Amino acid sequence: MPPARKRPRRYDSARTRAAVRAQFGHVREAVEALTPEQLDGPTRLGEWTVRDLAAHLAWMVGSVAELLGRPAPAAAELALTDWPLATAAAAERIDGHTRGIDASDLPALYERTARAYEEAVAAADDARLLPVGLGAMTLADFLVTRTVELVVHTDDLVAATGATVPYDRQALAACTRLLADALAVKAPGGAVEVRIPPFAVVQCGEGPRHTRGTPPNVVETDPLTWIRLATGRTGWAAEREAARVSASGERADLAALLPLMG
User: Fold this and answer.
1) Which of 82, 110, 233, 249 qualifies as a cystine partner to 28, CB 3.0-4.6 A?
2) Distance of CA 174 to the CA centre of its chain
3) Per residue of the chain (262 residues), what is the pLDDT tens digit?
4) CA angle 69-74-75, nearest 5°?
5) Structure pTM?
6) For residue 24, with 0-12 CB atoms within 10 Å meaning exposed, 13-18 middle and 19 or more buried, which class applies?
7) Of the candidates 95, 80, 113, the residue with the CA atom closest to the CA atom of residue 11
8) Please, are residues 120 and 65 in contact by the beta-carbon 8 Å criterion?
9) For residues 249 and 216, is the Cβ–Cβ distance under 8 A?
């Protein structure tokens, strides 16, 4: 019999709503400062240009208002911790939609997106179900996924342009925690303790469960390195070599479990 799932982590919805607003504001300021040459430049996301990435970021936030404008599904279909693991199935659809966005006037697009987000969430209930393509989710859960999209792609934007873009602390925390919890879902168990200070500690992996004292198998890294590992922006061996990941114990090797998102 598989181990029972732990009780889902709770997120403060007011803080999550504010985190989405704040991180999108940071991205908006950075995007509006880019030159046409920078916007036409490449990214580490296949054939996407920086302009494509900027359009995608606007869509990720704009989807909140878009989905709130549709009829609510009858029942939830996708647990929050399953969302990262399900994203690979939507990669082709997401690429096609992103390339179809009119991003010729990014300041206007970002202005419309920010206004629509504020108006849509102002009176929306956390329990409102949204017809998300990967499976119906509550608004509260979907907003946590928006912190992942914003933080991950902020890092992509920084990598592509060299721009300095702040990370809202609450957005970074929510993104880190959701991806850590997704690891525990993908590899249930208690053999390895994964520490991502100051935001998350999870146990995962089959084997003897640790109960007290110093765990025999420990992985520790910082939030951005963890996020890059979880999303395939970097590899386990490279981060171990660079000493951005410490791993002790014979089971403390996550290479076969990463990335978590497609």
Assistant:
1) 110
2) 8
3) 344 556 889 999 999 999 999 999 999 999 999 999 999 999 999 999 999 999 999 999 999 999 999 999 999 999 999 999 999 999 999 999 999 999 999 999 999 999 999 999 999 999 999 999 999 999 999 999 999 999 999 999 999 999 999 999 999 999 999 999 999 999 999 999 999 999 999 999 987 665 555 678 999 999 999 999 999 999 999 999 999 999 999 999 999 999 999 7
4) 110
5) 0.95
6) buried
7) 80
8) yes
9) yes
**Token pair in block for residue 61:** 């936030």
Contacts of 21 by beta carbon, 8 Å cutoff, 6+ apart: 114, 117, 118
Distance CA 27, CA 147 (A): 12
Count Cα neighbours of 177 within 13 Å in the Cβ-side half-sphere: 19
Rounded Cα–Cα distance for residues 175 and 19 (Å): 11
Cis bond before residue 259 (omega within 30° of 0): yes
Q: How far apart are CA 113 and CA 146, in angstroms?
A: 13
